[in-house]
Specification:
- The chain contains three helices and 18 strands.
- By secondary structure, it is α+β, with helices and mostly antiparallel strands.
- Strand 15 and strand 16 form a beta hairpin.
Amino acid sequence: MRTFMRIAWRVGCLLLAMVLVWLSMGMSAAAAEEEIVPSDEPVEVAELAPDVTLPRDRVTLVADGSSEEFSAELGTVDNLLKVAGVELGEHDIVRPSASAELEGGTEVVVLRATTRTVTFSIGIPFETERIPNEYIPKGTENVLREGKAGLEVTTYTVTEVDGEIVAATAAVVETVREPVSKVVEYGPGGTLVTPDGRTLEWSYKIDGTATAYTTENSADKTNATGHIAREGTIAVDPRVIPLGSKVYVAAREGARRSWSYGECVAEDTGGAIKGNIVDLYFDTFERCVSFGRRNCTIYVFGK
């Protein structure tokens, strides 16, 4: 009997538990079907706990082909570069400047400097060397050698940032070809002082040989220009000294014996007078023999 009572008690408890579960499920379903009506009552929002971190302002760093974000709280561009481990070269540029203050949304750009070489060829002008020549007429110039420009090649190292040249240094300067001077001779002319103290200007001079001639025993005393032969006239080679030229004949410069025929005019010619030979006229055969043949300098006056 006791055993039956125990079994009945247990069954009754089990049925009661099942009823309670069913009732609980029904109430939840009913509550879920109820319409939620918006309320005009203000909703109180709890303050954030002190350990919650708000989002900070960001800046963007663009350098060496990459882009990375950092906090604007780093303060300056310089601090940003240090934190990012970005080092600037001598000619690199950062925008904004390193001292600029960071602001949210700022883009910091590092522009790297690039170098290239540029070669320029420059002509080196030649100089003109002028050489005086007393044996050509005053004011005359003759080119003895043409000048030629030289060539210099300079290689520059050019540094550019963002397409702009910021530095240029001449790295190598090489002379490829030396210039060749132009050589010109010119007639400077000159002066001489006669034995009687007069100063005469001459155009050019000729180093030659002087001989003597006379018409003392000749019936025809006219010369090649139709004038009467006389002292102060000479016979010349017209290819060297034009007829009609006024000259001064004296001893060759540096000769041990000094003599001077003086001023004279080229009026005559002769078959034996060739090149730098002049024939000086004397009135007598005796003076011609005394003079003989001597080295001389012939100073030719200008027109």
